[in-house]
C-alpha cells in the first residue's frame, strides 16, 4: 500500500491528517523512532544488556524490523472481554496456534498472549516470534461485574516459557490503582532482573470520569498523566488509547493543571492530543503505541490506518491492534495488519 492508497482510505480526512503541522510541542524536542532507537535510549539507562537484547528482538522482527516502529498483535481479549464475545466472529482463534500464525503471517514485531496461550504452544513458537505475556487481567465472570486487574501468573513462569517481555494493565484512577501500581512495579523490576522487556497498558477507569456531558477516560490530560505514571515504574513501552477529548482534570475538578497544558501544549487536533501523550512518555524516550480499539466491521481498515497516521505523525512508536485483525477471516486480518505497517513504512508520512 502506497501513499496514494493511504490518501484514498482516509478519504475526506486525508488532507488534514497527512499535511497538518503541529504548533504545540516542537518536534525537535521529541525522541523519535529510528533504526537505532533502543540502543540510543537504553544504553545510557539503567536497563541491563539482557533487557536491551529483548527490546532489540522485538524491534528487529517482522515487516517493521529495523525501523524503530512496532506493529503488535494482542490477543488477551479472551479474558478481558470473554472468549465467546472475542472469538465468536472467528472461532479459529479459540485455538492458540492460530493466534501465533496470524502474528507471524501478519508480519508483526511481537504477539501479546496470555500465560495459558504461550504455555500450550511455547516450544513450537516462542523462538519464531517475540512473545509478550500478559500477566494480569480483568476477568468478567464475577457477578456483579467488577473492574480490577488481578495477577494470573508470575514473571518467572513467562520467562521459563521463553517470553521476550511481560505486559500488564493498570487501571489508573480506580479504587484498586494503588495496589495495582505496587504489584506491577514489583513485577517489572523482576522482569528487568531476568532480562525481559516490559509493556504497560496505561488505562484509566473510574465511573466519575464519565459525566452526562462527556466521557473523560480518554482525555489527553488524564491519559497523559497515566502515561507519566507508567514510565515512572519503568515500563519500556507504553500502550494507550488515542485521546478523544481534553481538559478532563478541569471538567472533573480534581488533580492539578496549568493553563499552558491546554493553550500551548495541546490543541483540539488529534495529532496534538496524541503528542501530549508522547511528551508524558519522557518526550518519546519510552515509546508510545496506540490501541487499535474494537472491531466495528466495514470501517475497521479506515480506523486502523487513521490511528496509525495520528500515532506516527504525533511522534508515537506504533500500533497494537487485535480485534480488528482476528475477528475476521485470517487473510483479511493479515491484510489489515499489513496496511497498518505500510503507514509506518511510508516515508512521505512524517512527524507533524
UniProtKB/TrEMBL annotation:
The enzyme's main class, written as a single word, is lyase
Among SMART domains, the record links this protein to: DeoC (SM01133)
List the EC numbers from the record: 4.1.2.13
Q: Which organism is it from?
A: Amoebophilus asiaticus (strain 5a2)
**Keyword Nucleotide-binding among record annotations:** no
One Pfam family it belongs to: DeoC
The record's comment on protein family reads: Belongs to the DeoC/FbaB aldolase family. FbaB subfamily.
Name the chain's protein: fructose-bisphosphate aldolase
Query: Gene3D superfamilies given for it?
Result: Aldolase class I
